[in-house]
Specification:
This protein has helices spanning 8-18, 72-79, 134-141, 158-164, 198-208, 221-232, 236-239, 265-280, 296-311, 335-346, 349-361, 364-388, 428-431, 439-443, 449-454, 483-493; strands spanning 21-24, 41-45, 83-88, 147-152, 167-170, 190-195, 251-255, 284-288, 410-414, 458-465, 471-478. It is α/β, with parallel strands linked by helices. Strands 1-3-2-4-6-5-10-11-9-7-8 form an eleven-stranded mixed sheet, sandwiched between helices. It starts with 7 loop residues before the first helix and ends with a helix. It binds glutamine. Residues 94-97, 132, 151-156, 184, 304, 445 line the site of glutamine. The site of glutamine has 14 residues, from strand 4.
Length: 494
Amino acid sequence: SKRFACTHQSLEQLNSSVNALVAISKTPRRTQHHGPLEGVTIAVKDNICTSLLPTTCSSAMLSDYTSPFDATVVRLLSDAGAHVIGKANCDEFGMGSLNVNTIHGPVINPHQSPHARNLPWALRERRSAGGSSGGSAASVAAGMCGVALGTDTGGSVRLPASYCGVVGLKPSYGLISRWGVISFADSLDCVGVIGKSINAIEKVFDVVSVYDKRDPTSATSELREKARSSAESCLPALSSGAQPTSLEGLRIGIPQEYFPVELDQSVISSLRTVIKGLAAMGASIVPVSLPATQYALSAYYVIATAEASSNLARFDGIQYGLRVPLPPGATRSKPSDVYAFSRSAGLGREVQKRILLGTYALTADAFDNYFLQAQRVRTHIKSDFNNVFRHHSVHLHLNRASAPRNGVDVLLHPSAIRTAPLLDGNGESEREGHEAPGLDEYLQDVMTVPASLAGLPALSVPAGLADDGWPVGVSVVGQWGSDELVLRIGRVIE
Ligand code: GLN
């Protein structure tokens, strides 16, 4: 395994141009520790609790917060011998796609396009690292650490991985414990792993993908085993540890709804190259349809904001978070004044906008038309996937014989509609007028939210450079619990 011997000083130096880390660990690396992750350096997204470093969620609300405990994932990693190098910049509470909604300043994508290699740093394009786990992806891409933890609610691991040219896994919902992870939208939140290679990711995933009794949504060992064996049953070529030489028998679905008009031409050609390679190895390429995809983005933004409005209620200046001195006229004895002033000062525009939107979706007036309707769409999205996969979800308790006979093993599609957007003009400068982003930013999530709504494993793998010289990612999506299969197919692509 590759060792990263970044000293504190060289990390600081690398970080000064990328802004990927918001806290850098000062504790020296343990040299005596043995375990499967010995020598592995890890950056942890700043919405995952660590007892030795602050956890700010990139929010003024938590700028002084240090958790008294480590999240389960962090504990598992340190017990296995990994070294946490620092906390990674992110969009505030995970809300965003560009890593510009942050009190720490935007993350600068460390990728250098071949056209810009000879230019001095100051003259290079400043592009977004993607969000919300932008700091996690950028710290891996810049070589600050071997692996990074992110969270993915609607694409926040896959999108930045795609923009930065690294691998990003959003596992099946419930496989990695969320205990100690600050919730954005519980029914969608997943801890994800970002690395330069599938190998690096797999090593970490093996350690953190275990049942945790402290997370009520954690999948039991029995369920994990059932899903794993079901995924492997008909793919003997892929079940051995070695790199497969043939993909005979593997059926890969290409969902026709994942080619919206906004999709960049050079992203399509990168995907085409990947498809050709897989077909040349014997895989069958099957066009499939997931008709509810067109409603996924709207459903996601209703469900995610509704859950967020409830989860973020705890940041009120009393239970948790920043408490500001009250202006004249406000009453200290009135909790609602403390809440209102503290939350207005502590939460950014995008977070406030979502809390309002989510609160509205849960009011009596809007509940049926928005929240329940979004849940119905979510059900349709899940059945779309179940209608195309060769295996039923183990959650459905259906017998194997009733699965679609011509089903596919995995789906393949572009991870994003384009390469990393420019920061200047796209992020901060527009944000200077304190405008929350418009619909454009939400559009970036078109390809990633369906797998989130269905809780499925999804992996973004680099697929070369687009015409502009920036990385393109393709995504492999599998049935619930088939994470190992998804990783193996990713390994063939990488
Ligand atoms: N970009 C999406 C959002 O803003 C996804 C965020 C995430 O996955 N945490 O909600």
